Amino acid sequence: MSHFTEVKLAHASRLINHGPTVLVTSSHGGRGNVMAAAWSMPVEFTPPRIAVVIDKTTWTRELVTASGAFGICVPGAALVDLTHAVGSLSGRSVDKFERFGIRTRPGPVLGVPLLEAGCAAWLECRLIREPHAEDAYDTCFGEVVAAAADSRIFAGGHWTFREDNADLQTIHHLGGGHFVRAGGTLRAAGS
Amino acid sequence: MSHFTEVKLAHASRLINHGPTVLVTSSHGGRGNVMAAAWSMPVEFTPPRIAVVIDKTTWTRELVTASGAFGICVPGAALVDLTHAVGSLSGRSVDKFERFGIRTRPGPVLGVPLLEAGCAAWLECRLIREPHAEDAYDTCFGEVVAAAADSRIFAGGHWTFREDNADLQTIHHLGGGHFVRAGGTLRAAGS
């Protein structure tokens, strides 16, 4: 049973506000792919827009350009090995969904393949074509058209990190396969 | 005594690879400012380039545009209150360095004001003018021209998060003054 529930578009930026490493999903012409990306960020609250760096040499970039859409899935700590693995080989030569036994569901608006099991959240995005930024910085802009999160860790527009949801806590890549897990929560004075 | 030591430019992206909330510093014509930014990311390893979202209505944006330079300082957990505070008021009406007793040092290449006390690292950046991305997405691109980190938490190109450096561990804004601290380290299989 999935614990995923819809996230309001006004809250979508919060899903990646704290800089987690994400999985970028894509499909076109009957083929799909998933890669890891440490470099993404929101750029606007309303309409919810994000930027993600997708190298121009990747199979994902081809699929995203061709389809005009991509998914941003936020893996939980239990998926750290999978995240590293899908970031370490190209989907040109292997179907990573099949290789790693990854199940996906189609996004509600664009049909982008999205992961739920083991993930904390996903954002379905429409590519905003920006040829110069894509070419010069491999930076792809997208508008979030749907979002959802596992209600055990994100509900009512807020993250809650607790001992009992450690497996869903976001991971943040330091480099070389080393990650930190979003753990101890801090609250700023006056907030 | 400062524990800051130079970080090789080839390693600069690692300082923000894991998505910490940062402080953006700037100065022009004798006035300076510091603001908090949750939205930044590397976009290229070599030359080291980054992107950061700086709203066009901010005083920082004016200073960055006028000077063609900015600093990215990575606050440690001990600066969570300061980070929230400098993100909650405008430098147009108050000198935040003075108000909060913040000491800075000039960057080695461009003279950008940089914070060290309480911070884990800084990156001194030259603005790469991209009028369209700046206008459409408030996204400012920069090339890192110098970088340094506190050797108690980042040395030899690697982060080390330990119990004894918790105050320097990076913070990641969830929204509304709630942060997570980069804490538990995970290592992916095969890495």
Automatic annotation (TrEMBL), chains A, B:
<dbReference type="InterPro" id="IPR002563">
    <property type="entry name" value="Flavin_Rdtase-like_dom"/>
</dbReference>
<dbReference type="GO" id="GO:0010181">
    <property type="term" value="F:FMN binding"/>
</dbReference>
<dbReference type="InterPro" id="IPR052174">
    <property type="entry name" value="Flavoredoxin"/>
</dbReference>
<feature type="domain" description="Flavin reductase like">
    <location>
        <begin position="14"/>
        <end position="156"/>
    </location>
</feature>
<dbReference type="Pfam" id="PF01613">
    <property type="entry name" value="Flavin_Reduct"/>
</dbReference>
<comment type="similarity">
    <text>Belongs to the flavoredoxin family.</text>
</comment>
<keyword id="KW-0285">Flavoprotein</keyword>
<dbReference type="GO" id="GO:0016646">
    <property type="term" value="F:oxidoreductase activity, acting on the CH-NH group of donors, NAD or NADP as acceptor"/>
</dbReference>
<dbReference type="InterPro" id="IPR012349">
    <property type="entry name" value="Split_barrel_FMN-bd"/>
</dbReference>
<protein>
    <recommendedName>
        <fullName>Flavin reductase like domain-containing protein</fullName>
    </recommendedName>
</protein>
